Amino acid sequence: MISFEQLYWRVMLMIRRGKITLVNDAGPVQMIQLPPSGLEGRDNLARIGEYGLASNPPDGTDAYVANIGGDPSNGAVIGTNHQATRPTGLQSGEAQLYNGPAGTSVYLANGEIVVNANGQQVQINNATIVTINAATEVIMETPVLKVSGDIVDNYHTNSSTVAELRTAHDGHDHQVVNVQTGGSTIVTSGPDLSV
Q1: Tens-place pLDDT, residues 112-149
Q2: Mean of the per-residue pLDDT values for the chain?
Q3: From 47, 105, 178, 189, which residue has the greatest number of CB atoms within 10 Å?
């Protein structure tokens, strides 16, 4: 039979909070270390996250611990918040995936989607085909556009690549007809690509 005092402490210990001091992200379950108070430390607390979303909260992140049945030896981290880097000012319905220390984010705003790389590289790996279906246009503000392979424009009706068209253009001559030198026809040289 559990006493009233034991029941009281179990209720009081059901939900605790503290600041994360260490994260072990090596195993199948992320393990957290945090002190729920200044008098105790908790180590190897399982962090229960949402399926499909993985994160490694930085030191100092607020964490809430649920102790099953009020038993501190049977707890799990069920919520985290890093106050210093949490995005604020989101409107109703908006969501943001972010890395606070790196300053990167994917912002699902009302009316637009904004990817902020914050000066870092963005990669798409192992895709067989990447399709962009834009209703009006695709704009690239960049000083250089590099493509390792061929480019085909108007691909529904054109099968020639830009390289093939350039070779065909550079390889032909133009006749200059009825030159004032006496009615002779001369042939111009190919274009100078160094200019």
Answers
A1: 999 999 999 999 999 999 999 999 999 999 999 999 99
A2: 88
A3: 47
Q: Cα dist. 172→158, 160, 189, 190, 191 in Å? A: 20, 17, 9, 7, 9
CB 64 within 8 A of CB 16: yes
Rg value, the chain, Cα: 32
Kindly indicate the confidence band of residue 168, based on its pLDDT and cuts at 50, 70 and 90.
confident
CA 80/CA 78 separation, integer angstroms: 7
As given in the structure block, the two tokens for residue 189 are: 């040289």
Provide the whole-model pTM.
Answer: 0.73
Q: What is the DSSP string of 33-95?
A: EEEEETTEEEEEEEE---TT----PPTT-EEEEEEGGG-TTSEEEEEEE-TTT----PPTT-E
CA trace torsion 190, 191, 192, 194 (10° rounding):
-130
Res. 75: pLDDT tops 70? yes
Closest CA to 67 of 23, 16, 31: 16
CA distance 38 to 18: 9
pLDDT of residue 43: 87
